[in-house]
Design goal:
By secondary structure, the chain is mostly helical. The protein has helices spanning 2-8, 11-14, 21-24, 34-38, 43-65, 72-80. It contains six helices and no strands.
């Protein structure tokens, strides 16, 4: 099951593996902004966020419909090459 999920993830998500976890995943806001970050989302912010997410999903669906996809095997080979001496280039759809 894990292998199936690995094959279905987009190539963009795979790039996170290469980055240093501590430097790229530190999403904690600075202490002065902490109260602002913890407040509930307003209805206007929620509406804007949902519109932004819907736009991104529409773009992704259009890419898939146009055939701009990368085979899972190419992504797996690219990820597996990180540990070796000869890292493969980032796979692209070619379209």
């Amino acid at each position: 099951m894990f292998r199936e999920r690995r094959r279905s993830r987009p190539a963009a998500l795979a790039t996170v593996r290469r980055m240093d976890y501590n430097s790229c995943m530190n999403t904690a806001p600075p202490s002065a902004d902490r109260a602002e970050a913890l407040r509930p989302e307003t209805e206007a912010e929620r509406r804007d966020r949902l519109a932004w997410e819907a736009e991104g999903i529409a773009v992704a669906r259009a890419d898939v419909a146009a055939g701009r996809v990368v085979e899972a095997a190419e992504i797996d080979a690219w990820i597996d090459s990180f540990d070796g001496e000869h890292e493969l280039p980032i796979p692209y759809s070619g379209r």
